[in-house]
Amino acid sequence: MKKTVVGLVLYLAGFAAWAQHSLSGKVVDAKSNLPLVGASVWTETASRGTVTDESGQFVLSKLPEGKLEIRISYLGYETERMTLNLPISGELEVKLQSKDFLTEEFIVSATRASSSTPTTFSNVDRSEIAKRNLGQDIPILFNFTPSVVSFSDAGAGVGYTGLRIRGSDQTRINATINGIPLNDAESHGVFWVNMPDFASSVENVQIQRGVGTSTNGAATFGASLNFQTDTHREEAYAELDNGFGSFNTWRHTVKAGTGLLNNRFAVDARLSKITSDGFVDRAFSDMSSWFVSGGYYGEKSVIKLVAFSGKEQTYQSWWGLPEAKLQNDRTWNYYTYDNETDNYQQDHYQLIYTGKVGFNWKTNLALHYTYGRGYYEQFREDDDFGSYGLDPVQIGDHLIESADIIRRRWLDNDFYGFVGSANYVSTDGRLDWIIGGGANRYDGGHFGEIIWARVAGNTNIRDRYYDNNAIKDDRNIYTKATYEIKPGLNLFGDLQLRGINYSFLGVNDDQRIVDGRADYTFFNPKFGFSYEKGKQTWYASYAVANREPTRSDFTDNPITEVPRPERLNNVEAGVRAKAGSFSYNANFYYMGYKDQLILTGQINDVGAYIRENVASSYRAGIEVDGAYQLSNVWTVGGNLTLSQNKIREFTEYIDDYSVEDFRQETFTYSNTDIAFSPNVVGSAIIEYKPSKNLSLNWLSKYVGRQFLDNTANEARSLDAFFTNDLRISYAATPRFFKGLEVNLLINNIFNELYEPNGYTFSYFVPGGNGRELVTENFYYPQAGTNFLLGLRMKF
């Protein structure tokens, strides 16, 4: 009996294997016969699917014999449905017909560089973002793009994070979402902590280095990040994305979409939750977000409503780590009060229209509104009443002039306006002309509350000890054109006029009245050319950018002594090439600054450090990046930046407490390095793909020495570091799933001890020779070896 049963089982298994078949084919454009990469192939009968490779090829295996229904879809093309009887002989060829509706790509095209634009840029698409996205913030996801240095306050890539590109920090990097400004109008910064898991709703992003092309919002003063949110999909879908990692990091994401309904309408949505304890003690993050978009897709127009929101609570780790604790207590946190937290929510609403007008014109218009509100709470030990405008408290014979206080500092702001553009392409395709611009208003309230005091005196809960408001109007108009003067040779011009009116009224947090107004008009021209020959594009350009001072430059300085605006003259020259399995970019850049604003140690009349203009400074370097497919299973890529970043001359101010009457000592420096601008930044990625479903990636990053201030003093610097990560990805299409992906990321696999960010200050105290210089360095250490594991299920 046992032999009979075993024989029957083996017979049935063999019969089942014999009855299973494979279906292979190729998907191409019906007119050009060119392969369509990434087209979706789905079997209704077997509930399995795949996507086409770089040659438009696909293979579906283990299919049952008999009738098989398949569906082939691709964005911008009519969906093809077929019924087959397996087995079939030969390879299936599917020709898709393009749809006559307007693509969503035009929403961002006005502010983006194209292949013929003479500037330096990188494009990162959704598939590449998805490989890296396991819950860490956007600056960490871009860590391996050229000239980028990223960092995290809590040390694990979740919570407060930031990045620098060519040494320029986030206040000098313009960011837009669907062409709409993202930077804070006053500080010029972008706070990624307010946008948890935003990467899960990004279709693609273009990173322009240098001044780049004209855009909306804050001046591009080092680089720009141009995001496009999710575009609609042809078919309905649902995705569950869950992850877990070191430091009790959890990520839960749900996405779903209707696909194209009635060939005209689509709705997409996402809900996310990310929590982490952080590498640094108590530096937890508790963040949630949502994203919804709905659109009408006509033959000649697209109308789209996009709304998204992020809410965060993070325990503060802003203080950093003192140098004395760097070796033995890297997780130390200065803050111990249990609610020393940052709390903020930001809601974004965008109404976007894009359409064709005749044969040669396309137009784009967007209305937007952003509402932000929140506070950070602080415990202040034995704080002076005078700092809060409070009178001393008399209790018996004791005059109390200070006490423990808990305060909250609030932001409550509205940002709204419109952006638009019109694009004309000549019938012969030689002229591509765009005119665009926008007008935006920021209305921001700043106030502080006392919510508790050990000795309250004549105060009530939530008394405001400062309160001020700012209004900022930002308008710009630009025109840009690319003209092909002969085959392969293109001339480019870009002119922008930007006007700013900024007014502020009230009492600042240091109890000073900060009433004032400033008006600016900036002209930002850009010119260049590109030459395409074969698979190479050579380019060169010259661009000018002007930038107004930030809020603190106004509030910390007397209005009669506000710093001058900064000016940047940028030269870019390079080559882009792609030939077969090899692609590369190589470029030279020079960024010459006039009146760049830097911290010098100078203080104002209440002891706050202010920024001052330095007459002349520059960044100059060479950037190289590329990728080469060695074989079907091996691919190598990477990038390298070599640069010099110098201030020709500046004066440093150091506090002197060695004398009876406080003063500041001055020291003059020449040809010193700009702070946080390493001379070497590089990364490398090696991919091994032994099968279609499995990918192993080794990722390396090197960042040279960074100085904490502008004196080029090695005693005030961050050591160079070299980190290595391992990413393992497995993707399959089992029955009842459109896709199943498992991603494991092991960060800092060799447990490198490194700090990519910090700050420093120095002062004189009485000493053996009359006085002694004390320098205090603070660092933001990053986690040692840690991991993130993610599972994505597609339906």
UniProtKB/TrEMBL annotation:
It is found in: Cell outer membrane. Residues 115-222 form the TonB-dependent receptor plug domain. Residues 1-19 form the signal peptide. The keyword Lyase does not apply. It is a multi-pass membrane protein. GO terms for molecular function: siderophore uptake transmembrane transporter activity. Its main location: membrane. The keyword Ion transport applies. Keywords: Cell outer membrane, Ion transport, Iron, Iron transport, Membrane, Receptor, Signal, Transmembrane, Transmembrane beta strand, Transport. One of its GO terms (cellular component) is cell outer membrane. Belongs to the TonB-dependent receptor family. This is TonB-dependent receptor. It comes from Algoriphagus sanaruensis.
